[in-house]
Design a protein that fits this description.
Length: 454
């Protein structure tokens, strides 16, 4: 259906104010991929989302759900049909600090969820790096994680219930404000991380935790990947209950060194950032354990106590992806995950793959979870470099599966990793994936071509 006709029909369903022009920023995400859509709908209520889906389902119009557009897999990039943006569902419906719970709509930003919890003395740990822009619905659809997932789990671990629009346009709830539920199959877990291919999240019930009294980071610089990864394994071996364990390899460290307030010692080729949290006594004990475990062969260990120093450190870590991008103007980056005892191998092999394809390669990421952001730097004006980077990513996915890992630890499959699932799943498991999709979305209109596409 042509844009004008589609917009006209949708306006009759959800009101003209909910139908907006498909402006270019709504057709892309942080990958820079650009899609196309005939119309964009921004409903203001869950019921309006259901009406939109019902109309699209009846008329065979594909739907691409969109949160904050910070995704790194192209999942929110449309390929025709409509973009269904959740940004106007931005209400915290209820917050019960004394019961450690919140119910928030899908379009509430991650940072608002974090801030609201904090204002009530509580804590929402998922901390993906673009929290001011990303939305709760997008976090749930990608099962987003971040540094503190090491101790506290990804977004899914905080979701007790979902309100979701499923085909052919019905608003249903799975779970709710309850902390346990074993009735039926675990549809909540199935929807978490489904990248908008099974349903459209309109709201979620979250279970929260009392905020830790203090957080105390510890930074250690090592000469190389081998000694840095040994130190990380020592942290686990010591039983030090770190809240986060992050790493940067030599090239990643070089990318951000100039702006690192802590200073980078000469000869440093690997950096570990760990964090202790809890009550004052507990955090101090864990901090001491972290300092001891990370020291060993370290070139330097730095453990800022002042709030400003701590905030500067995490701000610097959050900005690292941009410092890396600035190196050559662009990059292809994937979020493979490997068993922790294979982390050093995966980090070194990332560099080796880059070398074989004549590309600068580096990685940084969530070491405690074995989750690398393996990155190949490319010049945007060089199609040849881009082609080599895509070939390098293929090798990277092979590496992940060979080491017993997964092609995606937190960003999802989207379009960028489309077709890669066959590397890690047996044919029968792939059939089950297809059967789940068909059960939820028999007309294949919910984010078609994402996650499971060939
Ligand atoms: C600088 C930077 C750092 C990042 N760091 C991290 C990190 O540490 N950890 C991490 O996990 N991610 C990280 N990300 C990736 C990204 O922020 C997360 O994937 C985030 O969860 C995406 O949320 P969003 O609202 O922007 O979703 P979008 O990008 O809009 O969409 C992502 C996917 O979710 C689907 N979707 C969105 N909303 C809904 C909904 N309501 N219902 C159903 N489907 C929906 C979309 O169709 C798409 O498939 C980072 C991104 C940037 C730019």
């Amino acid at each position: 259906m042509a844009t004008a006709a589609l917009e006209h029909e949708l306006a009759k369903v959800v009101g003209a104010e909910a139908v907006v022009a498909p402006e270019s920023h709504l057709l892309t995400d942080m990958t820079g991929l650009r899609g196309r859509a005939e119309a964009v709908v921004l409903p203001s209520s869950a019921e309006a989302v259901a009406q939109t889906v019902a109309w699209c389902y009846e008329h065979g119009v594909p739907i691409t759900p969109r949160g904050g557009g910070t995704g790194l897999a192209g999942g929110a990039v449309p390929d025709g049909g409509i973009v269904l943006g959740l940004e106007r569902l931005a209400r915290v419906r209820s917050f019960d600090p004394l019961l450690w719970r919140m119910c928030a709509e899908a379009g509430v930003t991650t940072a608002t969820v974090q801030r609201t919890a904090r204002e009530g003395g509580l804590f929402f740990a998922p901390d993906p790096g673009a929290a001011e822009l990303s939305q709760l619905g997008g976090n749930i659809a990608t099962n987003a994680a971040g540094p503190h997932a090491f101790k506290y789990g990804g977004t899914g671990a905080w979701v007790t219930g979902l309100e979701v629009v499923v085909a052919p346009g019905e608003l249903v709830t799975v779970g709710g404000a309850i902390r346990k539920d074993v009735a039926g199959y675990d549809l909540r877990s199935l929807l978490v991380g489904s990248e908008g291919t099974l349903g459209i999240v309109t709201a979620a019930w979250l279970k929260l935790l009392p905020a830790p009294e203090v957080t105390l980071p510890v930074v250690a610089f090592h000469a190389d990947t081998a000694s840095g990864c040994e130190a990380i394994l020592r942290v686990l071996g010591h039983g030090a209950r770190a809240a986060a364990i992050e790493y940067l390899d030599g090239e990643a460290l070089a990318s951000g060194a100039a702006s690192c307030e802590a200073g980078v010692p000469d000869g440093a080729g690997f950096m570990v950032i760990a964090e202790a949290d809890g009550s004052v006594d507990e955090a101090e004990r864990i901090r001491a354990e972290l300092v001891e475990a990370l020291s060993g062969s370290a070139l330097a260990v730095h453990a800022p106590r002042d709030r400003e120093g701590q905030e500067a450190l995490w701000r610097w870590r959050a900005g690292l992806a941009f410092a890396v991008l600035a190196r050559r103007g662009s990059a292809l980056s994937d979020d493979i995950v490997v068993p922790l005892d294979r982390l050093a191998e995966a980090i070194e092999e990332t560099v080796g793959i880059g070398r074989r394809h004549d590309l600068v390669a580096l990685s940084f990421g969530h070491a405690g979870d074995g989750n690398l952001h393996s990155t190949f730097l490319v010049a945007p004006e060089s199609p040849d470099e881009l082609e080599r980077a895509f070939a390098a990513c293929e090798e990277l996915f092979d590496l992940a599966t060979r080491l017993g890992g997964s092609i995606s630890g937190e960003h999802g499959v989207g379009v960028l990793k489309r077709g890669q699932l066959r590397r890690q799943w047996a044919p029968r498991t792939l059939e089950l994936h297809a059967a789940v999709k068909a059960a939820f979305d028999p007309r294949n209109l919910l984010n078609p071509g994402k996650k499971l596409g060939a």
